[in-house]
Write a structure and sequence with these properties.
Order of helices and strands: HEEEEEEHHEEEHHHH
Oligomer: single chain
Distance between the termini: 56 Å
Number of helices: 7
Number of strands: 9
Low-confidence stretches: none
Strand content: 25-35%
Helix content: 25-40%
Largest sheet: 7 strands, antiparallel
């Protein structure tokens, strides 16, 4: 393929991820402003952006990214990070990546988000989308919802229904390249704590190595996933943010967060990929909840 086409696609993907980051940060700061002071005392939070540079395993410059972190009164901790990295995969990692066994060079750009609200009635959420180029090229990502309270961790909960509907709509709008049933099942299977035999949350969609042969269609689908998330999650936060909580509900939230930590450290591909490609450790582990309990 013409290198100019590849470079154009890289630039378009990177610009989209960064624009989506900016829109989400604005929406989250607006939620911070609107949270009722009686439940959320103090000043509304704001994102702090920190740039970082990467060196790959050969010692060569390998791109970097920008961390956007907010510790607010509504959002106890939220990170919306963008990175664009390049270089060579370490030898022990190459066989696991499509197209890297014969040529270890790679380029990857994406957005990664995790939000841990203070209110147990507001679900935690994760979203990421990315574009990866080796000798092959593909999109990956998805979004999943993690309610903290057992009473809300059911498929009949209104938040669950709304979130699944948004992810289904994103897939259905691009049904020719994005099978909702496959990507929902993939999410359910991926975000499962094998050692506890329980789901991390209520699911969503997850996809990887997505290459239908129609790059523009695949990119449009990945953009739609981002837009769907940016619409539905602030709506869910706003619907629940005025609900008061008890100490028992806060305790349940903190214990449930422990499951989140277990999954991210044991199974999460993004965490493993970042650490094994010499990524920014602070950015990679910013998904960890700020307060958690294992009773």
């Amino acid at each position: 393929m013409d290198m100019s086409v590849i470079e154009d696609r890289k630039a378009r993907a990177r610009n989209w991820f960064e624009a989506l980051r900016d829109d989400i940060c604005v929406a989250f700061e607006r939620l911070e402003d609107d949270a009722p002071a009686a439940l959320y005392p103090g000043s509304a939070g704001r994102f702090v952006r920190t740039a970082w540079d990467r060196t790959d395993h050969t010692g060569q410059p390998g791109g970097g990214g920008v961390m956007s972190v907010m510790r607010g009164r509504l959002f106890e901790k939220v990170g919306v990070h963008c990175s664009t990295v390049h270089g060579e995969f370490a030898p022990e990692f190459r066989a696991q990546i499509p197209g890297a066994a014969d040529d270890p060079r790679f380029w990857a750009s994406g957005i990664s988000l995790i939000a841990h609200p203070h209110n147990p009635h507001v679900p935690a959420v994760h979203m990421n989308t990315r574009y990866v180029v080796t000798s092959k090229a593909w999109f990956g990502g998805g979004a999943d919802l993690t309610p903290a309270l057992d009473v809300r961790r059911t498929q009949s909960d209104p938040d669950t229904i709304a979130f699944h509907a948004a992810m289904r709509a994103a897939c259905d709008a691009h049904a020719g390249v994005a099978p909702y049933g496959k990507y929902k099942k993939w999410c359910d299977e991926y975000f499962h704590l094998k050692h506890r035999n329980e789901p991390r949350g209520i699911g969503g969609i997850f996809y990887d190595w997505h290459d239908s042969g129609d790059w523009d269609a695949d990119f449009a689908f990945t953009q739609e996933v981002g837009r769907a998330f940016a619409r539905v999650y602030p709506e869910l936060v706003r619907k629940n943010l005025a609900t008061p909580w008890s100490e028992a509900e806060r305790e349940e939230q903190l214990i449930r967060r422990g499951r989140y930590v277990e999954f991210n450290l044991l199974y999460d591909r993004g965490t493993i990929f970042g650490l094994r490609t010499d990524g920014n450790v602070e950015s990679i582990l910013s998904s960890m909840p700020p307060v958690v309990k294992w009773p």
